[in-house]
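Hey, I was hoping to borrow your eyes for a little while. I've dropped the whole record in just underneath, so have a look:

——
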Amino acid sequence: MQLADLRIFTEPQQGATYDTLLAVAQRAETLGFGAFFRSDHYLKMGDASGLPGPTDAWITLAGLARDTSTIRLGTLVSPVTFRAPGLLAISVAQVDQMSGGRVELGIGAGWYEAEHTAYGFDFPSLGSRFDVLTDQLAIIDGLWSTPIGETFTYEGRVQSVVDSPGLPKPVQQPLPIVMGGGGATRTPALAARYAAEFNTPFVPVEFFTAQRDRVRAACDAIGRTRPMVFSAALVVCVGADEAEVTRRAAAIGREPAELRQNGAAGTVDEVVATLRRWHDAGAERIYLQVLDLDDLEHLDLIATEVAPQLT
């Protein structure tokens, strides 16, 4: 595993300005991390302040597309409940153009009902949201892949488009789609058809391997030949010594023991061992969830002390 296989993943709804996110993205780019991803949420969770308020994921990424030059950018993940498929396809394609082809679309069914209530988004049943996810994937794929000068029509169970010119096109053909989650049937089937990468966030290694096998089986069932990247997401809390581990854990309101059990946490050697275990289980990429966005030295430590031991 190389440093480029480690991606920085942020949760701005917990409280972050664009300038804060920019500082993290630029430091991650300078250090050589593979990507900067952010959540797509509009309401804080838990005891975080959430101030100054939420930032829109794709507006943020549009800014970062111009304020960075090499690092890849994306969402983990954009709920289909927030945006109509045509709007999402246009926004993502435009940000890909603005970045010179560095964008990835993480997309999912959505789960956080409170933010939908708080900001006026519809939140249908889980089954209905999966119907929307099915339609949006088909529509976005169709809009992006329809040749220029032709039109695309799709009649879905929930969402449809008629005679769309399918413009604009992203720079990347195809633009990578990231999917994830724990569903046993519909999720693997949709991922096999549309995703370049399957991500399993914040779960035990054993669940990751079981879900990986379901996705592989779904790929085999449709005769898919292009490779699927498998990745995981883990909260990260690394310290040069135990005192630093304790300090960083306290800064995000977590206990070191709990973080060690559920994330990539502890001293440098401990985190190296954790990441090796995930890599050995088949995780080709790891999204490191960084919760203290003011602690840029945390990124420095990971890049200079952890990553060199993973090669």
About this structure: The chain is about 45% helix and 20% strand. The radius of gyration is 19 Å.
